[in-house]
Amino acid sequence: MSAFQNEIDTIARLREARSGKWDNINPSHAARMRLQNRFHTGLDIAKYTAKIMREDMAAYDADTAKYTQSLGCWHGFIGQQKLISIKKHFGTTKRSYLYLSGWMVAALRSEFGPLPDQSMHEKTAVSALIRELYTFLKQADAWELNHLFRDLEDAKQAGNDVKAKELENKIDNFETHVVPIIADIDAGFGNEEATYLLAKQMIEAGACAIQLENQVSDVKQCGHQDGKVTVPHAQFLAKINAVRYAFLELGVDDGIIVARTDSLGAGLTQQIAVTNEPGDLGDQYNSFLDGDEITSVDDIENGDVVLRQNGKLIKPKRLASGLFQFKQGSGEDRVVLDCITSLQNGADLLWIETEKPHVGQIAGMVNRIREVMPEAKLVYNNSPSFNWTLNFRQQVFDAWEQEGKDVSNYDRANLMSVEYDDTELGKEADRWTRNFQRDAAREAGIFHHLITLPTYHTAALSTDNLAKGYFGDEGMLAYVAGVQRKEIREGIATVKHQDMAGSNLGDDHKEFFSGEGALKAGGKDNTMGQFG
């Protein structure tokens, strides 16, 4: 007996027990509605997706070809269409996630209007977007299942038992669009209590994985901006603890914490770490501070801070802002210490924010981390802030030059030029770009590849293309040829936008509730019928 039929039988027994009071309830219709709404709360989703993500992490440990991917989505509809597309093209959503980008929340979802990625947006906007994304993913389940149920009824009415059995199998083995979200909590939006409170909201909304960075929360900067300021390890670890307590309080015992370090590009700290003895964590943090050695009390001026560092007294370099400066070239060593410390204190995954996509650079740091923590693996930002074309063309140029290959026909500084698109170097750089995720997963310990804000760019690009044609000479043809015709021919479900928004689903519900008296929208005069 199918799972669908089991649900029908269960509801039929419930109806019979009500002594006729539920006779208007059709068990088949109620079973459809049950199966169309598998997840009742955000915590249901968080527990379900945490298990998936843990299984994916174990699969990657066994085979690095099984890395995972996501795209950042700034609206529920964008996330929904992404997952529908993945299922359509690949038949499964396995190892495909969503990423919730703090950058895009700031730029697109704040009531203040567009903001830079500096934690100035409302913190509740983050959990609100998680809820919205999962609302749209659940609606995608209901939409797809509704079509299967309609087809099943048609097959049964036509007496086509073979088709009906095929559809019942599809319903019983239906793969949900609900996938893990890695959600950006920035630097925690305040002290560790604030981090805990927001983490709870995010988990209750459905997040199974929370990404936390080691910047100072009230002066947080985008990882690809200047002026980043890190905090001593003790403060960061307190926030990792806060997130873990939030997961445990809510019963998501296998929730995932992604510890991000911005130390590679951060040259400043707000505080000198507390240290109790030489070599402890605070002392290691302070050992990276830049300063001048003090040889006499006369070297100390009013307001100076004095620190013992490696057996010497130094005067740390403090800027007019009151921030202290790290030693030049210490970033990679600080990254390695950050990552080891985070994993030793409860983090599950790492995020190293880099200034360019370079497999060798990432692998160099990960290999050092794995000397202490062999299980270390990364979530990596395949950032739109990188000029990918120029970066990889320059990497190929440098590799060829080192190999002794003649590169005299190429101007390294101007490799972005279109004139290099069809050259041997341009094609090789494209091959490196195509293989970057596979290579980095294999060689640099990257478990999860994400693009933080791709749909910000795709929305702008597609709008520009439509506006250019529609308000120009193409007129309506710009929409018809550039959008609608492509939707029809490429099988994009939104061409029937009424159906995608829930019109057919609502019609069926109206019929469940009102029977023949239902006023439905999907009749012969609905222009959606023009699309077949």
UniProtKB/TrEMBL annotation:
Pfam families: ICL (PF00463)
CDD domains: ICL_PEPM
InterPro entries: ICL/PEPM, Isocitrate_lyase, Pyrv/PenolPyrv_kinase-like_dom, Pyrv_kinase-like_dom_sf
GO BP annotations, alphabetical order: carboxylic acid metabolic process
Cofactor(s) demanded: Mg(2+)
Claim: Ribonucleoprotein is one of the keywords in the record: no
Catalytic activity: D-threo-isocitrate = glyoxylate + succinate
Stretches assigned to coiled coil: none
NCBIfam families noted in UniProt: PRK06498.1
Protein name: Isocitrate lyase
Taxonomic lineage of the native organism: Bacteria, Pseudomonadati, Pseudomonadota, Gammaproteobacteria, Oceanospirillales
